[in-house]
Automatic annotation (TrEMBL):
Keywords: Oxidoreductase. PANTHER family: DUDULIN-RELATED (PTHR14239), REDUCTASE (PTHR14239:SF10). The keyword Oxidoreductase applies. Pfam families: F420_oxidored. The lineage of its organism: Bacteria, Bacillati, Actinomycetota, Actinomycetes, Mycobacteriales. SUPFAM superfamilies: NAD(P)-binding Rossmann-fold domains. This is NADPH-dependent F420 reductase. It comes from Nocardia xishanensis.
Length: 219
């Protein structure tokens, strides 16, 4: 598949690098063209770098790997009609009410993926990959305590969700559907909470029992 990656930072490297290694045609696009070319050269596997416009034009699916406050300008200046848009962004900002020395996060806005979809109405937005650090996506490890690392996906277009599920599987991750795009805001909020707890030294994973013990059966 032809995958465009907008951004040349940590998430671009982690996910774009994984997809290139899995055999996809990956093109990085960045506001500093040389940064995209440098990243593509470092990754190899036929990956190429260029402008944001070139990456978007080339691709069937486009990963948005830029800060949230850059999204509006990027989306409004790039032709993305009909593309599957993978939104991994988090609108984190430091929680200034946290005690001194504690790094907690709140969200600068509540529903980034919905805003992306409203800005590019003809694209098919799927929220994915926002829950874990770039280093996690880039790492080899995929099994933890006997469970495959999973990627919840929120999107309204079943074909787009299916496509992104395949891309998650290509990274040896387990995708699962998490509802329509209106639920992406819960993934965004989940990230703010869990990442803040991790930064505070708590094991967010330990908050949850395994499925068999979750008492999740309908009465
Ligand atoms: N890093 C993580 O662990 C992680 C995990 C989950 C989700 N995310 C989300 O993924 C997104 C990307 O994060 P990242 O860690 O990859 O960031 P990053 O390493 O800082 O890279 C950001 C990329 O966006 C580009 N950029 C910044 N401002 C821009 C603008 N106004 N217009 C165009 N391009 C711009 C940067 O270009 P320059 O080099 O020119 O500044 C850089 O290529 C963020 O929304 C973040 O919340 C990150």
């Amino acid at each position: 598949m032809r995958i465009g990656i907008i951004g040349a930072g940590a998430m671009a490297r982690a996910l774009g690098g994984g997809w290139a290694a899995a055999g996809h045609e990956v093109r990085f696009g960045a506001r500093r063209r040389e940064a995209a070319v440098e990243l593509a050269d470092a990754i190899g596997h036929g990956a190429r770098g260029g402008s944001i416009e070139e990456a978007a034009e080339f691709a069937d699916a486009v990963l948005l790997a830029v800060p949230v406050d850059a999204l509006d300008a990027v989306l409004r200046s790039t032709v993305l009609d009909g593309r599957v848009l993978i939104d991994c962004t988090n609108a984190f900002q430091p929680d200034t009410s946290a005690p001194d020395g504690t790094l907690n996060f709140v969200l600068a806005e509540d529903a980034v993926a919905e805003r992306v979809a409203a800005t590019v109405a003809t694209a098919h937005v799927v929220k994915a990959f926002n829950l874990c650090a770039a280093e996690v996506w880039a790492a080899e490890a995929r099994e933890f305590d006997g469970s495959r690392l999973s990627v919840p996906l929120c999107g309204d277009d079943p074909d787009a969700v299916q496509l992104v599920a395949g891309l998650a599987e290509d990274l040896k991750l387990r995708p699962f559907p998490a509802g329509g795009l209106h639920r992406a805001r819960y993934l965004e909020a989940t990230s703010a909470m869990t990442v803040g707890l991790w930064f505070a030294g708590h094991d967010s994973r330990a908050m949850f029992p395994p499925l068999a013990a979750a008492s999740a059966a309908r009465d």
